[in-house]
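Practice problem 4.
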């Protein structure tokens, strides 16, 4: 079949990951797949290439492998409307692709204008099957929309409305599954597909070798976390870690946040914190490999119950022991498989769990090996592949 996948956000960010791996698994099973995303660099021109792995892009397919035709649309106007995905050139390019591409299937990842508007405009006169993926409850918690109440109401309606057009709706969590049922989508049209692990991209590597790349000392205990909604809390947790392990160091992996740096200085811990800023695809796994322990603070909110924090799966795929909180389906994974440590949603409790692992290298090694095995055998995207393909083939 000829399949068009529409991702609403920028290349490499958020839902891009899920939509790319869905696309690759569909291509792995012989389908002709084109995936649209939004360029991070270009305002006015589209960039077209072929891709089969997370790293690397090619002008034309070479050799064997599940090739996905990638189209990066211009990002002009990407944030003109509250939220994301409102670029006019991007939307027009997608509409043209649907009209001229003769697609059997359109698979929309989320509901933003550059996903839903092309479908609303073309669906009345084109015969394709439409599928929708729901991987975050934006109107429920994620979207700020500049604080405009009317924008929130419209956003909530749009987020739900597009699902009714789909022959199947895939959801990343049980919370979104129940939400979809609650708004009237029949169970026969719902499929729960949790986030997957990119074990071919994120792989274990020797810690000392990884630290040499960035000049980190080989004998210093290093903990790592990613930039998210809990930045201040993560810094407070690390401040408590330093009280118990004064020689520890924190790697803050992700885009720079000036307020986070100010907070680190205010706490007097800035000299023990390394903010990476945006990192390349090649460096991302290397940074994770530098850590003795990874942690992610998750508050028991609708936001974290509805989404699947992919960072945790990256840490586990890298064979790193993880300290986190038992929220949503993270709780299921960590209680059913011995891959890390669940701590109370408490700053001191998180710090104590991290320090306990820093002081126990045998425990760290065991959890890391278990984590990698579970990701390979149960969470890898290729394990999800058959189920993903069945959705559009049934």
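Answer key:
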């Amino acid at each position: 079949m000829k399949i068009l996948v529409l991702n609403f956000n920028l290349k490499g960010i958020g839902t891009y990951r899920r939509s790319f791996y869905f696309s690759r698994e569909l291509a792995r099973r012989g389908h002709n797949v084109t995936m649209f995303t939004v360029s991070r660099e270009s305002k006015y021109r589209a960039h077209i290439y072929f891709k089969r792995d997370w790293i690397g892009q090619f002008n034309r397919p070479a050799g064997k492998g599940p090739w996905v035709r990638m189209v990066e649309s211009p990002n002009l106007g990407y944030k003109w409307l509250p939220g994301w995905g409102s670029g006019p050139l991007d939307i027009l390019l997608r509409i043209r692709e649907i009209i001229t591409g003769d697609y059997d299937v359109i698979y929309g990842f989320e509901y933003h204008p550059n996903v839903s508007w092309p479908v609303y405009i073309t669906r009345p006169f084109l015969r394709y099957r439409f599928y929708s993926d729901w991987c975050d409850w934006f109107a429920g918690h994620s979207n700020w929309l500049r604080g405009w109440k009317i924008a929130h109401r419209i956003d909530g309606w749009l987020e739900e409305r597009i699902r009714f057009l789909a022959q199947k709706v895939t959801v990343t969590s049980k919370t979104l599954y129940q939400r979809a049922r609650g708004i009237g989508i029949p169970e026969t049209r719902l499929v729960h597909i949790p986030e997957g692990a990119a074990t071919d991209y994120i792989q274990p590597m020797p810690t000392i070798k990884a630290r040499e790349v960035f000049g980190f000392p080989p004998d210093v205990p290093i903990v790592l976390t990613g930039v998210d909604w809990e930045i201040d809390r993560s810094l407070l947790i690390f401040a408590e870690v330093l009280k118990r392990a004064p020689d520890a160091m924190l790697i803050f992996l992700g885009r720079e946040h000036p307020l986070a740096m100010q907070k680190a200085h205010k706490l007097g811990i800035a000299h023990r914190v390394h903010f990476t800023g945006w990192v390349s695809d090649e460096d991302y796994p290397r940074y994770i490999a530098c850590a003795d322990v990874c942690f992610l603070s998750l508050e028991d909110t609708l936001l974290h119950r509805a989404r699947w924090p992919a960072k945790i799966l990256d840490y586990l795929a890298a064979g790193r022991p993880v300290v986190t909180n038992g929220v949503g389906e993270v709780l299921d994974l960590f209680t059913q498989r011995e891959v890390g440590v669940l701590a109370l949603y408490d700053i001191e409790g998180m710090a104590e769990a991290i320090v306990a692992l820093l002081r126990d290298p045998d425990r760290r090694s065991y959890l890391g090996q278990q984590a990698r095995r579970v990701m390979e055998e149960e969470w890898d995207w290729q394990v999800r592949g058959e189920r993903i393909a069945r959705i559009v083939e049934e």
